[in-house]
Design a protein that fits this description.
The protein contains five helices and five strands. It has 151 residues and is α/β, with parallel strands linked by helices. A five-stranded parallel beta sheet has the order 2-1-3-4-5, with helices on both faces. The two termini are 21 Å apart. The structure holds 1,3,4-trihydroxy-5-OXO-cyclohexanecarboxylic acid. The site of 1,3,4-trihydroxy-5-OXO-cyclohexanecarboxylic acid has 10 residues, from loops.
């Protein structure tokens, strides 16, 4: 079974109470339900972790070494300065997709720089909760392709 780790960084536990024009109205739990539904379509096993602390996200990534096939991460504000998170994603050596609910390039200038983007295979931003389900679909395709053609 292919296992995907879905990570959410600081303040994403508060979705549903954060500004709806940027983040929509769904709670993280509701978004996770949509992710689970999409993952089931592709027969992927998903594990979820949200933390307001960078070190906890690093610990979770390290705990998945050897057993996780791909990572979907919304690093929250750590997107813009989280170097230990970046290193942990490099060390994980699995495909990573960076997601954002909002379009980080259409907001304050400080949000338009991602220190994570360079170590992710790609980024999906601006589609609300659909950014996550799109990432599931893409990751499923990437992993399947890699398994059928490892070279
Ligand atoms: C976010 C964008 C970040 O700039 C912000 O700090 C967040 C959420 C997004 O999903 O749009 O907390 O990652």
């Amino acid at each position: 079974m292919v296992r995907i780790l879905v990570l959410n960084g600081p303040n994403l536990n508060a979705l549903g109470r954060r500004p709806a024009e940027h983040y929509g109205t769904m709670s993280l739990e509701q978004i996770n339900q949509e992710i689970s539904r999409k993952a089931a379509e592709f027969k992927l096993e998903v594990e979820f972790c949200q933390s307001n602390t960078e070190g906890e996200l690093v610990d979770r990534i390290q705990a998945g070494w050897g057993s996780i096939d791909g990572i979907i991460i919304n690093p929250g504000a750590l997107t813009h300065y989280g170097y230990s998170l970046k290193d942990a994603l490099i060390d994980a050596a699995v495909p990573v997709i960076e997601v954002h609910l909002s379009n980080i390039y259409a907001r304050e200038r400080w949000r338009s720089r991602s220190v994570i983007a360079g170590v992710a295979q790609g980024q999906i931003a601006g589609f609300g909760w659909r950014s996550y389900t799109a990432a599931i679909e893409i990751l499923a395709g990437l992993i399947q392709e890699r398994e059928t053609d490892p070279g």
